[in-house]
TrEMBL record:
Source organism (scientific name): Laodelphax striatellus
Keyword terms: Cell membrane, Disulfide bond, Glycoprotein, Hydrolase, Membrane, Signal
InterPro entries: His_Pase_clade-2, His_PPase_superfam, Histidine_acid_Pase_euk
The name this protein goes by in its record: Multiple inositol polyphosphate phosphatase 1
Cystine connections: 63-393, 263-278
Cellular localisation: Cell membrane
Amino acid sequence: MMAEWQLPVLAFLLSLVAILDAVEFEREKVCYATNQDPYLHFATKTAYEFVYGKKKYQPIPNCSPKQIWVLARHGTRYPTQEEIVKLRNLSKLRDIIVRNHEERRTGSLCEKDIENLKEWQYNVAESEERNLTIQGWNEQRLLAMRIKTNFHSILDGPYSPEKFTIVSTNTTRTMLSAKAFIEGMFGEDPDIPELVINNTVIKPYKGCDRWKKEVDHNPKTSEEMELFSKSAIMNTVVANVSRRLGFLSNLTESDLHNMFMMCAFGKSWDYYKVSPWCAAFTTEELKLMEYSRDLWHYYKSGYGSELNYKIGCPAVRDMYERFERLANNEPEKNGVFYFTHSTAVNTVLTRLGIAKDPFQLKHDNYFSSLKRKWQTSLIGPFNANLQAIFYKCTDGDENRVSFFLNEHLVNYEGCDVGLCSWRYLQQKLKSVVDPSSCNRDFCFYSSSSIVRTNLSTILSSLLLIFSVMNFLT
């Protein structure tokens, strides 16, 4: 039985625990809505505005640009049809979160973040799936204007088919991106023939059976991402987010993914407005969610698969052959502009060796990968673009090249602070772009391999039948 003097002490200790719990609860109520420095890196759903290079372009002394070659991802888009349905269903989850805070008093979001969630509306129709947004249009238009300012000596003047090549893949979002870029480069309603549509060079994975089977539809491609999502650290994220939103039991991985995607899309659609669903996560949790997406893209379109090098080769070959003609003083275009998708941009970066880490990204090396180069928020946001500029110079090497990724100068390996000798690149890339290997022939399984596979299957079946008959007799 407890002594009489112990009762006040116990009451004091219980009160102290309650106070500390209340302090901890209030401490967690950090308002995302009033955060002056929110984390804005959401992998490939990152808004270009937050990551592109804003440093003024510096002309290279004694060098004149002769061609700019650009491979650009489309601007900000709406979600896929499947994503639209899932994100719309977040309204049900939102209603429960609000009740958790206002009635059950179990959540720890601040009042302003709850108000933002209450006001959140999702008005994206399924008919708008993957379409370019207004922000996406403006991103491309403004990019073109900046490029024209930087390289006005070769880009000034009206459009001419002798001076410019503009090609898009066969999707609405890339074609509209190209048109927005054209408006920024040449003004409204320029006299330009119908847009050239061609997937061969800038979307070579389209119809590539081998890549689809061995990479895109291969369960191993998502293996590292899935292992990471089931790791102890991600289980902690699920538990913390669930508690923060007022749930007594854990939300699902799918719930967290949908909230993360809505957070990302919301911010990319409106730079200056708070994206309410971001309040579900701390900065560290957003970084972990970002890493999960980086793992996916690393294996789907980056250094995680050898086939991705092959997919990126045709565009690199196109650039190489154009620069080779310029080096030989043969006629070439002033500007070459391609409008494509994130997979194409990522695979070209892979083929060129840009953003390559000295280690493989894995599910168990997050903390050693915090300063990784393969961070898709920085290399593959909406509107991602690789610019390659060929120069003629009067001092030192006559022919030089520089690369810009999202308007940041690339410190390319083997080059002088980002300025490369064409002779060096020529030696580095010549075997890579050899037409005998740099093509789409690998995409299609040969008839002999199909025959071998079929024979192997038939023989295996016959052996099984023979074994069963042998057993029965």
